[in-house]
Amino acid sequence: MASQLIVRAVPPFDAPGAAGVLESAARERLDDVELARAWGMEPVPRAAFLAGRLAQRRFAAELLEVPPSDLATAYDCPRCGPGLSHGRPGYTLAGAPAPLLLSLSRSAGWVLLAAVRDPAPGQRLGVDVQDPAGTDFDGFDEVALGPAERRSLRGLAARELMTGRARLWARKEAWLKLCGTGLRVSPDMVQVLDHPGIRDLPSAESGLPAHLAAAAALSGLPERDSRL
Ligand SMILES: CC(C)(COP(=O)(O)OP(=O)(O)OC[C@H]1O[C@@H](n2cnc3c(N)ncnc32)[C@H](O)[C@@H]1OP(=O)(O)O)[C@@H](O)C(=O)NCCC(=O)NCCS
Questions:
Q1: Is the pTM here over 0.70, yes or no?
Q2: Is the distance from the beta carbon of residue 86 to the nearest atom of ligand 1 less than 6 Å?
């Protein structure tokens, strides 16, 4: 997977007046379906949403070696279908699907982007980043983890426990994005210990701060490339 997967971490954009800067960049560079979704959000999630979408468009354009304005938003939601701005991310280029798998995740102000250029037919990608602090609540293990996963965290406490939970949760969300279902599938049903299609992304590879947990899931590779 390492040879095919391209990841990029984008740091928080929190300069003075950041929301206004993002909104005017978005008006210039994003598509109407994206703007319509953004304008329906409260200011804080809107800024995070716009930062992610702007970064993703730049990232995709760079990989495809085209101007960002050549890309048209083409998301695909397994429930609602194509043509909207939610679900599995993607773009079209000159009316045809751009030859790029994409996945995006946001946490603690960071945006994690992942891509595979010229994917094999049927190949799928998912990526996720998690802040361990978000797992610090009673009942997390019962709702989110299967029995073997709970056992793997036995004996851990405090920060180590939260880090262990975040690592498993990132793997699950990466896999659920790959599948396209998201959390409509109960997360405790997705077993991510030793899952051959999922791997953790260390900070040295992702560019994220070391305390954030990140994972990538990639499927549909030819046999010789399927070791993750
Ligand atoms: C996918 C999901 C696990 C994302 O987790 P999250 O912690 O909320 O958010 P993250 O920041 O990690 O990821 C958000 C990104 O996931 C991606 N994503 C969303 N739904 C996706 C899906 N079905 N398949 C693949 N990727 C998806 C998008 O790129 C999204 O970015 P956007 O906000 O710019 O659109 C969660 O939002 C979910 O379960 N969504 C599906 C819910 C659903 O089915 N709703 C029905 C829609 S009608």
A1: yes
A2: yes
The domains located in the chain, with CATH, are 5-225 (3.90.470.20)
Q: What is the DSSP letter of 120?
A: P
The helix (run of H) or strand (run of E) holding residue 20 is helix 18-29
CA 150 / ligand 1 centre spacing (Å): 25
Cα(197)–Cα(215) distance, integer angstroms: 11
pLDDT in tens, 32-90: 999 999 999 999 999 999 999 999 999 999 999 999 999 999 999 888 888 789 999 99
Q: How far is the CA of 224 from the centre of ligand 1 (A)?
A: 30
Measure the CA–CA gap between 207 and 204, rounded to whole angstroms.
6
Give the residue, out of 102, 104, 181, with the most ligand 1 atoms within 8 A of its beta carbon, to mutate for a pocket test. 104
Contact indicator for 171, 215 with CB cutoff of 8 Å = yes
pLDDT value for 179 = 92
Give every residue of the chain whose pLDDT is below 70, as ranges.
1-3, 221-228
Q: Calculate the alpha carbon distances from 56 to 60, 174, 196 in Å.
A: 6, 17, 27
